[in-house]
Records
---
Amino acid sequence: MENISELKQHLNAIEQTRQISNAMYLLSTSRMKQSMQNIDYNLAYMRKLRATIKDIISKTKHNSLTDPFMELTEGGKALFFVITSDKGLCGGYNSAVFNLAISKIREYEKTVVYSYGYKGTEMFLNHGITPDDSMYGASQKPSLYSARALGERIVELYDDCEVSEVYIVYTEYVNSAVQRPVCKRVLPLLRRDFDDVEYENKYLADVLYEPDLQTVFDRMVPQYIIGMMYDILMQSAASENAARMTAMQNATKNADEMIARLSAQINAARQLIITNEITEIAAATDIKGAV
Amino acid sequence: MSEFLLEIIAPEKHFFKGMVEQITCQTEEGELGILKGHQTMVASLEIGEIKIKTNGEWKSAFISEGFMEVRNDEVIIFSQCCEWPEEIDGVRAEESRRRALDKIEHAQNIKEHRHNEISLARAMARLKIKKQSR
C-alpha cells in the first residue's frame, strides 16, 4: 500500500508546478502578441525601404555606386551573430538555433562568434567554442535602442575591415506553431538580395537626389541594417515566446494528467484503509458476539 | 490649396498618414519646403524638426535621421524615430544632452566623439521642439 501523506506531498508539488507553467503560458502568449504587432509595423517600413534601395541600385550601373557595404571580399573573417534566449523552458528553441549556427560556423575557416543570449553562450562553451563576445538582456525586451546599438556595432566592425561578412543566426517566426532557425547575411549587401522586391516605382527617370545619390545611399544602408536588426530581434523574441508558449502548454497538460492519476491513487489508498478498518471492526464485533 | 498624401513611417510605429498642404524639413543643405506636384526626389534628412501644414495649421514634430521620398502626389518619410511635442520627455532629453556634452569632453577617440555628437543633436532638437510648443 502506498503512503497517503507521501502521495499528497507529490500532488501538492505538481499542483504548484502546474500553476507556474500555466502562468508562464499566459505570459508568453501576451508577449508574443506584442512582438507580433511590432513585427508588422517594421515589415511595412522595411518593405518600402527595400523598394527605395532597389530603385537606386537598379538605376545605377554595376560598380558606379561605390559602396563598401556592397563589395564581397574573399578570404576575410566571417562574423556570426547567434541570437538565443536568456532563459530556458522554451522547448527546442535554443538548440535549433545553436545547431544551425554550429554547422554554418564549421563551413568557414576564420570566424568571429558573437553570442547574444545567455543560453547560447552556455552551449558554445559546452562545445568548446569560446564566443568572442557575449551579450545578454535584449531578448527579453527587444527595443529599437538595442537594435540600433547592434546595427552600429556591426557597421563599425565591417567598416574597420575586422570582418568581411556578417551573418545572423536567429529564429524566424512563421506562425505560433512553426518557428524556423535561419542564417541570414546582413553584410555585404548584394544586388541579388533585392531581386525579390516588387517594383513600386514606375517613374525611373528624373529623380532628384538631395544632396546626391551617393550620400543618400550611404545614409540609407545603415538605416536599412538597423531596421533589419530590429526585425531580427523582434522575430527572435516572438519565436522564443511562441516556443515557450507551446512548451508550457504541454507542461500544463502533463501536470493535469498527473494530478488526475495521483488523486485517483490517493482515493484508492484512502478507500483501502477504510475497508481495512471496517473489516477489523467487523471482525472484532464478531469475536465479541461469540464470547 | 491642393493637398497631397504624407506618410511618415518608423520601425516602431506608423507616425503619420494623411492629407497635408505643405511640409518643411531639414536637409543637409538647409530647410526644404514641399508642396503638391514637387519633382520626384529622394532626400536625406537631418535630425531636427519637421513641420506639417494641415487645414491651414502648422504642426511640428521631432524627427531623427532619415530620408524622404517625394513623388508627384505622395511623400513618404522614413525615420528611426518620430515624436510629437507632447510625446517628448523633456527631462530625459535634458539628461541626455548633459550626458552627451560630458562625454564629448572626455571622448577618447573620434568615433566616440561623433557618436555623442549625434546624441547631442537629437537631445537639442527634442528640447527645442518641446520649448516651442509651450
---
Amino acid sequence: MISDKMKAAILKELKLKEFDIQDTTLANQVPGWDSLNHINVILAIEKEFAVKFKSIEVLKCKNLGDLQKLVDSKLPQ
Amino acid sequence: MKFRTVWERWQFNAENTPDKDAIIHWYAGEEPFRWSYKELLETANRFSVQLKKIGIQKNQVCAIIIRHNKFFYPLYMGIVGAGAIPAVLAYPNPRLHPDKFRDGIRGMSQRSGLDWIFTEKSLEPIIGPLLADSPTIHGLHFPLDWNISETDDAIQQELDSIRRERLPEDPFLLQHSSGTTGLQKPVLLSNRAVLEHVDNYGSSINFNASDKVASWLPLYHDMGLIAAYHLPLAFGMTSIQIDPFEWVLAPVLLLEAISKEKATLAWLPNFAYNMLADKVPDDELEGIDLQSWRLVINCSEPVRNESHVRFLERFSAYGFKESSLSACYAMAETTYGVTQTEPGKMPRTIQADRQKLSEGNVELIDDSSKARICVSSGKVIEGCQVKIVDENRHELVSGKVGEIAISSISMFDGYRNYPEKTAEVIEDGWYYSGDFGFIYEDECYVIGRKKDIIIMAGKNIYPEDIEDTVAKVSGVIPGRVVAFGHDDEKLGTEVVCVVAETNANTASEKEALRVAIMEAGLANDQSITRVYLVPTRWLIKSSAGKPSRKANKERILQSNEFLVEQV
C-alpha cells in the first residue's frame, strides 16, 4: 500500500494538491509525471526517505506499488 | 561496390563479414543479445518465407508495432526480403486511451494504405477493432509467436526471384513525417534514395570500419531508423539498440553501452544532452569510459549551445572530448540528413543580435545580453542543395533569415496518397521545409519553425491537437484555448503551455480544472506542463477571429498572474 509519506512527496514534486494514487497506478497516469520529470520525482522520493535507488531498480518497477516496495526494502528494518 | 537494392547490400555484408556483430540488442541489467550478420540475414530470410506463406504480396505495406525485441530487426528485414514495404509505427504509450491510438492508426492507414499490422498478442484487444472499419488493413499477425524454423524450397525460389527482380526505383520503406493526429504524412522511400543517402551521409561523418553506433532512439523516427539502424547495417557495422522506454527511465544505459562496447557514434535530440548531464547520478558513472565516443550528433530539435557546454562539463572527466560534439539538420522527406558539421570539430556558434534576427537579418553583436547564440548544423552534404527563401519563395542572400528549402537526390517522391499536401511543399524539385534559418559563411543555422509546432523532447507536437483536447474539458470555454511551446533552458527543450478561458473563480476550482486539463492531456499522450486560466474575453483574437497563439503567448508571459500552480 502506498504510504502517506510517499504520496505526499510525489504530489509535492508534481505540484498537485490531491490525486488518487494506488499500488496499481502507473507513473505516467499521474498528471505531470512524464519522461522529462521522472527523475525529479525519483530524486524527491529518495530525499524524503533518505534512500538511494539505482536506475535499474526503478526501471524494474511496474507500478507505484513496486516503487513503494523498493523504498521499503531500503529502509532500516 | 554498387548495389541495386538494400537487400543486396545486406546480403553482401552477411557473406563478407558473417560473424561480425550486426546488432547488439541491449537489455537493462542483463547480458545483451548479439545478432551476427549471418544469423541476422538467415533469420530475416525465414521471416520472408513465413510472410509468403501467410500471403503477403509484393509492395504491400506492413506496419510493425512491436516494443523493443530482438526479433524486430530480422522481421523488418524479412518484410524487405519478401518484396513488401516495412513501416515502423510507435508502440502505444500505456497512458494513451485505446480509442485515441486507434484513431491515429485509422487516419494513418487511409493515407499510407497500411495492408497488414505485425504486432504483439497483448495488443490484440487494442488494435483488433481496427479490422472492422479500416478500408485497407487486411489483418493482424503476431510474428513473435511464429515458428520460423521450417523452410520451403518452392517459396525460397519465389523469394529469390522477387529479390532478383527488385529495382533501385522500387519502394523500400515507408516512414512518417509529423502531422496533426491522424494526419501524419507518409513518406515512401525507394531503394535508390536510401542507398545513395547512406553513402552521402556516411561520408559526411567519415563513417568507417571501426565505427559502432549506440542508440536508444525509437525506430519509427527517421533519426533512429535511418541514422542509427540503416546506416550501420548498410555499411556492415555494428549498432547497439536500447529500448527507448527504458532509456528515459535510466539514461545511464546509453553511457553504459558506449563504455562497454566501445561505441563511437550516437545521435541525440537536444533534450537528451541535458538529461544525461543533469540526471545521471555520479555513483552510476563509476567505471564509465567515453574515450571511444568520436561523435555525438545533435539533431531533431533546435541545437542549444548551453546543452553542449553542460554535456562537455559533465563528461570530460569520463573521457568525452570537445571535438566529439557535432550537429546535423535532417528530415524524413530527404531520407534523413541535409547538413552536417565537420567531424572532429565542435559545431560553430555565432552571437547574433536578437532584435535584428527577428527582423530577418543576421548581424553579429558583442553584447551577450542582446544576443542569441546560434549553433551551426554544418555544411550541406553531398547530393543535397539548400537555399533560404522569403514568403514568396524567392531566394535570399547569405545572412538573411527565411524558410529553408532543400533539393536532394535522396528526396521522397511526395506524400503517399496525399497530393494536396505534396503540392504545398514541393515546387520545381525543391522541398519547402517549414523550418526557419539562415546560411552564414557556408554553414546552415536552424532557428525556428514557420508554423507554431512545439518540439518537446524531440517530438513534434501540433498546438491544434492540444487545443482540441483542452477545449473538451468541462469548465473550459469551448474554442477559447491556445497552446504554445516555451523554451525551458534547464530541460533543454520546449514545454507545452496552455491558456484557457474559464468561469472558474476560486483557487480550488482553478486547481481542479488545471488537474483535469493535465489528465485530459495524458489520455491523449500529451504532456501539458503549464496551465494559465484566464477570465472570459481575455484571449486576443487574430484577424481570422480565432485566438492568436503568438499574441497571447507574448501577453501571458509578461506576468505569472494567471499561472495555476499548487505550491
---
Amino acid sequence: MRKKRNLWVRTAISIVVTLVGFYMVFGPREGTLAESFTWEGIKKNLSENINLGLDLKGGSHLVMRVKIEDYLKALTDNYRQAAFDAAKEAGLSVTDVTEVSENGNYSITLTFSDPSHKEQIIEAVNRKVDFNNPNAPWTQTSTDTSITWSLPIQSQRALARQATEQALKIIESRINTFGVKEPTLQVIGSEDSGRIMLQMPGVEDPERVKRIVSAESKLELMKVVSPPYPSPVQTYATREEALASIGGRETLTRKVFPYTERDSTDGKPRFVVVETPAVIDGSELRDAAAVSRTGFEGDYQIVFSLKPSGAQKFGEWTERNINNYMAVRLNDEVKSIAYIKSKITDSGEITGRFTKASAEDLALTLKSGALPAPIEYQEERTVGPSLGADSIRAGVTASVGGLIFVAAFMLFYYRGAGINAVIVLLLNMLLTMAAMVFFDATLTLPGIAGLILGVGMAVDSNVLIFERIREELLAGKTIPQSVDLGFDRAFVTIIDTHITTIISAIILYMYGTGPIRGFAVTLILGLLINLFSAVYVSRTIFLWILQRRPNMQRLSI
Amino acid sequence: MIRIFANINVDWMGKRKWFAGVSIIVLLAGLISAVGREWSEGGTSAFNLGIDFKGGTFVIAKFKDKPSIDEIRSALQEVGISDAVIQDSTDKKDEVLIKVPTLGRREECPNVDEAGRCFVKKALDSFGKEAEANLSLEEDQEARYKIVGTEIVGPVAGAQLRNQAVSATLLGLLGILFYLAYRYDWTYAAGAVIAVFHDVLTTLAFFSIFQWEINITVIAAFLTLVGYSVNDTIVIFDRIRENLTLRRGESIYKLTNDSINQTMGRTVVTNGLVFLSVLALVLFGGEVLRSFSLALLVGAVTGTYSTIAIASPIALWWQSIIGVAELKQPEKETEKLASAARQSTVRRTVVR
C-alpha cells in the first residue's frame, strides 16, 4: 500500500512540475490563456518569455566618443593649479600663471619677476607635478622670467589612448553591473580617437542604459567658504553675488557652484563658494548604495564609504575642520551641504531628491568610477543578430536534426524504454528553458553550448541506467529487481558526474563574465534538472509500467 | 534486445605504450605547428585568432536592393574572407554592417590600411557597381550599393576574456581534482584531470595544425569539451570503484580492463550519439558555427579516447608506483596484492 501511495506522490510531483514548466515557457505573461493555444500565440509567448542575446537576436548599436579635448583641458587645469601651488609652497614668488587649452594646443606658463629663481622654480614644480611622465612627457621652454610647459602631439595621443582605454573599462563595468547580458564593446577608429562602439541585446529601457553609460559621476567633497556652525551656511541668491564675495571672478582656490537646497520651496538653485582643490574625490570611493529613510519614492539618498587611504585623509581633514561646512559636489552641482559635527573617517552621504532608479543608477556609476571625460553619442541604430540570421537557421536545423537522430536511435536500440528516454529528454529541455525564464537569463550561443552539454549528459544518464538494467537482467535478476538495481547503481555514477560538472560550472560562473557565465548558467540548470528528469521522472514511469503489469515476463529495453 | 560490444575482452592497459605514443605524436605535431608558425618569417601565427580577438575593419554598406546575409556571406567567401560578422541594420533597412578580420597583405589590395574596405568592395561588386565617391547612392543611377562608413575596430575584450576563461577553467579543474580525490583517490583524480589537459591540448593542436579560426564561440566549445571529458572519465572510474568492492582478490590491472570492457556498450552508444550529433552540426551548421562545432567534434573523440588511453593508465601507473597495483596482467591473482590495493584505494569507498 505504501509503495502505491509513494507512486502517486511521485506521479503528482512529476506532472505538476511538467505543467509549471510548460506554463513558464509557453504561457502568456499578458493576454488571455485562450490566445496561447494558437500557433501565433505560442510564437508570441515564446519570444516574450525567452530573452535571446545579441548573437541570436540583435539589439542596439551605439557609437560614442570620449571628449578627449575636455580630458586634456581638465588635465591642464589640474597641472596649472599644481604648478602654481608647488612654486608657492617652495616660497618662490610667481606673478602669474596662464593656460592655453584649445585647438589642440595645451600649455601652462608661469611668470615670475626674479630671474635667479628660475632653476629653483623648475625644480620645485617638477618635483610635485608629473610633467616628465614617461608615457606622455611635456616639453619645457623658458625665458628669463617665464617657464612654459606644453603638451606635444605624441603625448596628446598617448593620453587620448589612455583615456579611451580607461573609459572602456568603466563603461564595461557599468553595463555589466547594470545586468546587460553579454554586450560587445570595442574601440573603433584609431586608438586615440576616443571612439567606442557598444552593441547590446534588447534591453527594456535603452535610454536608461545610455544615461548610465554616459553619466560623468564626478564626485568631490569640498570645503564651503562660510562662517562656521552655528551660523547658517553662507549661500548666495545669484552667481554674481557669489562671485562678488570673492572679488568678482573665480580664482585658483575659490569656485562657485549652484546648490539646490533639499527643502527649498521655489526649487531655484542658490550658489555657494567652495575651496579647491577638493578634499576627496570619487577615486577614493570604496562603495556606494542607494538607501531610503522613509521608503517613499523620490526620497532616496546615496551613502558611500571610502577606501582606507581616502578615509585617513578625510579623517584628518574633518578633525581640523569641526563646525565648518562641507559640500558634496556631483558633476557641476553641489548636491548637499552639512556641517562637520565630529571627525568623520570613512563614510558620507549625498542627499538630494532622488528617485529609487536614479539613486541606484548614481550609486552604480559612482562605484564604477568617474569617466575621464564626458561622453557624447554619435550614432545609434538597431542591428540584427551578430551570428547572422543565415547561420542561426543552419545551426538550428542541424541541432534539431541531431536531436531527432538521437531520439530515433534511442527508440530503435532501447525499444519501449527508448520512449521513456525521449520523454525525459524533452522534459529536460523544457524544464531548462523554464528555469531560464524563471531566472530571467539571456540565451546566447555559449549558453546553447551549455545546453548541448546538459542534453548530452541527459542522454548519457539514460544510457547508463538502461545498460545497467540490461546487465542485471542478463545476470538473472527479476524485472522489478533489475529496474531497482539499475537505477540505484547508475545513480551513484550519475551523481558523481553531475556534481563534478556542477562544481566546475559554479567556479566558471563565479570567476567568469559574459559568455563564460552564460555557458555556466545553462549548464548548471540543465544538470540539476537532469537529476530530476532522468532519474526521478524516468523511474516513476518505470514504476508505473511495473505496477500495471506485475507479471510481466519481458521488459522492453 | 540489441547489444553492441556486449562481451568483449580487450587488454586495454597492455596497450598503454601505444596510446602514449599516439598522444605524444599528436601533441608534438601541434607543438611543432604552433612554434613553427610563430617563428617562421612572414608565416601565420600559432593560432588563427578571429576578429573577436584581433579586431579588423568595420564597414557599413548601403544597398538599393539589399541582398540576403547569406548571399553577402558567400560573396565574401569568394574573395577569401570566411569569418566575417554580418549584421542586418534593422532600423535602417537598406544598410548592412560587415566586420572583416585584419587581412595579410595580398596583391589585390596592397594598401594595408584600406585592405578591409577593399576586400569588402571586391566582394560586394558581385552585386553591381559601387556608387562614385562624390555621389550618393541615390544620385548614381548605375550603382547598386555604396560603402557609407569604414572604421578600424579593436578586439572585443579579447585577451581579457581568454585569460579569464583559462584561469576560471583551471580553478574549475582544481575543484574537480579535490572532489574526485575525496570521492575516489588522488590517483584517479590526477588521471581524470590530466586527461582533461590532454583533451584541451589535443584540440588546440588541431586548431593550430588546420588553422581553424578561434573566436569567442570556440571558448564556449572548449568549456563544453572539458565537461564532456570529465563526465566520460568518471563513468569508467565509477565502475572500477564498484568492481574493487565487489571483486576483492583480483588485481587492479584486470579490474581496470574489465571495467572498461563492461561499460563499452554505454561508451559506444553515448559517445557515438554525441559524435554524430556534433558531426551534423559540423556538416550542416553553417560557416559561422564551424570552428565551434569542429572543437566539439575533436573534443568528443579525444574525450572518449583519453578516458581509456590516458586517465586509466595514469591512475594505474601511479598505483604501481605506490605499490598497490602492477603494470601487467598477473600470471596468477595473488591475494596479497589485491588486499594491499583494497587498503589504499578502496578503504574509503567501502565506507561510503
---
Amino acid sequence: MGALGRFFKDINKNKAMLIMVLPATLWFIFFSYLPMAGMVIAFKEYRYSRDGFLASIIQSKWVGLQNFKFLFSTNDAYIITRNTVLYNIFFIVLGLVIAVAMAIMLAEITNKKLAKVYQTGMFLPYFLSWVIVGYFAFSFLSLDKGVVNHMFSWFGIDPVNWYSDPTYWPIIIVVVFLWKSVGYNSVIYLAAIMGIDKSLYEAAMIDGANKWQQIRNITIPMLTPLITILTLLAIGKIFYADFGLFYQVPRDSGTLYSVTNVIDTYVYRGLKSTGEIGMSTAAGLYQSIIGFVLVITSNGIVRKFNKDNALF
Amino acid sequence: MIRKKRKFMPALTLMLVMSIVLSACGGGKNEGEGTAEKPVELIWYTIGTPQKDVDKVMKEVSKYTAEKIGVTIKMNMIDWGDYSQKLQVMTASGEAVDIMFTSSWAFDYVQSARKGAFMQIDDLLKEHGQGIIDTLDPAFLEGSKVDGHNYGIPANKELPAQEVWRFNKQYVDKYKLDISKATTLESLEPMLKLIKENEPGVYPFAVDKNQMPNVPYDYIIEKLPMAVSLDTKDYKIVNVLDTPEMKQALNTMHKYYKAGYIPTEAATMDSMTDVQTTGKWFSDRATTQPFADNLWSASYGYPVVSTPASDALIYNWSVMGSMQAISANSKYPEKAMEFLNLLNTDPVLRNMIDSGIEGVHYKKTSDNVMENLPEAKNYDMPTFSLGNVMLTYLNSTDPANKWEEFKKFNDAGKEAPLLGFNFDPTKVTTEIAAVQNVKEEFWAPLMTGTVDPEVYLKRANDKLKAAGLDKIMAEAQRQLDEWRAANK
Amino acid sequence: MSVENVGKAKSRDFHKLTPIWNIGFHSVAGIFALLCVFPFLFVTIISFTDESTLAKNGYSLFPEKWSLEAYSYLFKAGDQLLRSYGVTIAVTVIGTVIGVVFTALFAYAISRRSFKYRGFFAFFAFFTMLFNGGLVPTYIVVTQLLGLKDSIWALILPLAVNAFYIMILRTFFSTMVPDAIIESGKIDGAGEFGIFFKLVLPLSLPGLATIALFSTLGYWNDWFNALLYINTPNLVPLQSMLMRIENSMQFIMQNSQNASLSMGVLQSMPQDTSRMAMVVLATGPIVFAYPFFQRYFIQGLTVGAVKE
C-alpha cells in the first residue's frame, strides 16, 4: 500500500497542476490519442465493411509491412529521402538565422510605428495559398512572359527555360520557402525579445556594452531556450515536406523531379490511381517514426548540455 | 461486396459491437415504412457546386416521390474539387449514405466498388430497376461491371468517346482551309505551318499538359503506358511507349514543338482556358458529343468547328462517366433502387431534379422545351451527373432532334477491346506507386513534344522497367486472360 | 495608451541605435517587407483587372482596363458571403479564447518544476505532434463519437489545442517568469491559480499574444475541417467557401478532357481575377487585425520596463 499511498499523496500535492492540464489532456485524448488507434491501418489491406469502421479494420486482411514497401522499393526512394531531408536542413538553419535576425532588427529599430508596418508586411505571404504563390512564381519565371527572362533580355542574356531546367530549383525552392515563412516565424522571436527583462540591458549599458555586445550577450542567450525548442520540433518534422511548395510552385513539372520530388509528393503521385488508405497511413507512420527517433536522439543531446532547454 | 469470413476473438467482437453502437447502424427496419404515409428518407450525395435552392426543390421532389414510391430525398451537393476526398473519407468511415454519385474521374467507381463502398446490385436491379434495364443501352450496364457485378447505374448519355480536331473558325474562314483534310496528326502540318507564318501571337496547335497523342490503343489504367491494340486479336498487353504508332506520334509532336506550333510551356500548362478566352488559338483536340460545336461556340463566344480525329469507341471510362451507386450500408437499398429507377425513367422527376420547380425556376414553352426563369440561378445543376439525360427538356436553343442524335451516336459506337475488363491492382500496388512517379516525370514532356523522344523514350522505358512495369503488365495480362476465358 | 507611451519613452533612452545601424536595419527590414507586400499588392491589382485584358497581356501592374467584375461575381453570393464572414469571426473568436486558455493552463503546469508529472505531460503533448491516426479515424471520432457533424464546434474543437503552441508557450513561461515571482506569490499565500492569473499571465502577455495570433490565423485560414464536417451552407466559413471555389476550378480545368464535364460547367466558372479577389476578401480583415496583436507585444515591453 505504500506505493499507492505515495501515489495518492503525489496526486493531492499536484492537484492544482493536474486540474490545469486536464482540459487539454482530454482534448489530446479525443483528438489525438483515440484516432491514433487508426495507425493499425498501415498494416492492413483496408476494405470497407458495412458494419462500420471498427468492423472494417477487423475484417481487413493483415499484410505485414507490405504497405511500406513502395517507400523503399525503387531508385526514387533515395532521391525523395535525400531531397526531403536536405531541403529541411536548409529550411531549419536558414529559417532560424534569418527569422532571429529579422526579429532582432525589428526590436532594435527605434521607430516603432515603422517596425509595426514592416512586421505586418512580412506577414502577408503567410496568407497566400501555394496555388497563388505558384502563379506568382510563374509570372516571374515563365519562358516567354516572365519578368526574369524579360530582364535578362535587356542585358542580352539568353532566356532560361526555368520549368525544365533543374539547376536553379534548389535555390528557388529555398528562397520561396523563406519568403513565405520568415515573417511568421520572426513573430515568435520578436515576442520573446519583447519579454526580456529590460533591466538586463540597462545593466549592460552601464557596463558600457555596445549594441552588438548587448545582442550577443543578452538577446541571443535569452532566446536560446526558444531556439532550441523550435529547432527540436523542426527536427521531428524533417521527413515531412510542404506539399504545395514542392508541387504547385514547380507546376508539377516532370523534368524537375530530380530536385523537387519529396516524400509527400511521391506518396501523392504514387497513390493517386489506387487510393490505398493503408499505404498512405504507412507513409505517415514512417515519417512519424523517423521524426520521433531523431527528436528523441537530439533531445537527449540537448539534455546533456542543459536540462531546462530539453523538450521533456 | 467484399466480406471476409468472421472469425475473431471475443475482445474484438466487443469492439465490433461498440462500433455498431458508435456508427448508429443498429436501427432496425420498422414495418410499414416506405409508403406514401410513412416515407423513408434517402440521403443522396452528388457532385456539383452547392445550390441555394436544393432543399426547397427537394421538398417538392419528396412530395412527388413519397406519393409514388414512399421515399423522401435529402440531397447533399459537394463541390467539384472536394467531392472525391469527402466521399472517400465518408465511405471509409462508414457514414450513413444511401445514394452517391461516382464516376471514372471523380470518386473513382471501380476502386470504391472493390473496396466495398457500394452495394452489389445485380439482383436489386432485376427486381426494382426494370425500367433502367429497358431504357439504358445494354453496353452501359455491361461496361460498368466490376469483377462481373454491377455496383452502379450509369447515366444514359453519350456512350462512346470520340476525339475531334477543333478549329477556331475565324482562321479557317480567313485562310479558306478545308478542315475535312485533317484526319491524322500529320495531316495537320500544312495548316499549322500556314498559321504559324501568318498569325504571330496565335497558338497553331493548343496543347496543354493533360493532352496526349491519340493512338489506337485501349489503356488498362488511364495514362499508364500499358494497353492493348484496338484491333487486337490476342489481347496482348504492350507498353504503349514501345509501339510504332506512339513513336511516330511523339516524333511528330516534337517536330511541331520545335517548329513552334505548340506552346513552349505546354508541359506545365494546366489548361488552355486563357487562350480559349482570347481566341488566340487555331486548333486543338477534344472529346466530342453530338452538337458539341454549338456548345463550344456558345461557351467561348466565337465559332468553333470540328472534324473527327478518331472513331467513336466505347471505353470503360466513357461508360463510367457518370453513375449513381447505392451505399453498402444503406438501410433501404430496395427503396434506393426504386428511386433510381424512377429517376431514370420518369420525365417529371428527372426534370424536377435537373431544373427545379416549374413556374419558379423554369417554365415550359412546349411539350419538351423549357426556358429558365431568373430564379434558375439558385438551382443550376450539372445535368449529366444526375441520371438519364435524354429525359430532360430541351433548351430553346437546342436542336429538336438532340436526343435522337445522341441515340444515333451511341448506336454507332464500337466497343473497345477492354470494355468490361477492370484491372485489380491490389497485388501490385507497390509497383504502381513507383511506376506512377516515373510516368509523371516523363509523360507530359514527352506527350507535348517538349523533349526529344529519341533520347527520352529510352530513358523513360528504362526507369519504368526498374520501377516494375513488367510485373504490372504480367499481372494485368494474367487477369485479362482470365477475364477473356470467363467471358467467351 | 499613456502607460505605453511612458514605456516607449523610457525604453528609448537606453535603447538607441547608432544612426548607421538604424538605417541599415530599416533598409533590410523595409526591403524584405516590401518584397513580401508586393505580391499582395499585385493580387489586389489583378483582382481589379479586366478578365480579357488579363488573358491577353498576362499579369500587369498597370492593367490596360480595370474592372469590378471579379467582385461582382463573388458578391453575387451576397448574403452567403456575409454569413461566411460571420461564421469565420465567431469560430475564430471562440476558438482562440478556448485555445489560449487550454494551452496556457497546460503549458504553465508543465513549465513548473514543482509539478511532479511535468515530464510525462510534456511528452504526452509532444507525442501528438509526430503521430496521428490520419484522416478517417479523426473523422470518426468527431462525427460518430462526439457527434459534431454539421455543428460549429466541429470547426472549433479540432483546432483548439496544438502541441506546438504548448511547447512555445512553455518556453515563454519558463524563460520570462522568474521563479522568484512565483515564490513571492506563495509567501503572500496565493493559491496556484491565483499565482497563475494574477502574477504569471500579466508577465507573459507577449507569449500569450503570439499564441493568440497563431491560433487566430489558424482558425481564419482553416478550410479543411469545414470540407470534412460541414454540409449546411449556413455554417460554411469564409476560407472554406473560397477554397471550394478554387479547388473546384482547378479540378474542372484538370478534367477539361472530360466532354460532359467541360461542356456542362466550364462556362459558369469564375476566372483568374475572381480567384485573386477571393484572396483579397479573405485576407483583408485579418491583416487589419494584426496591429491589434502587436500592441500586446509593445505592452509586454512596457510591463518589462515598469517591472524594475
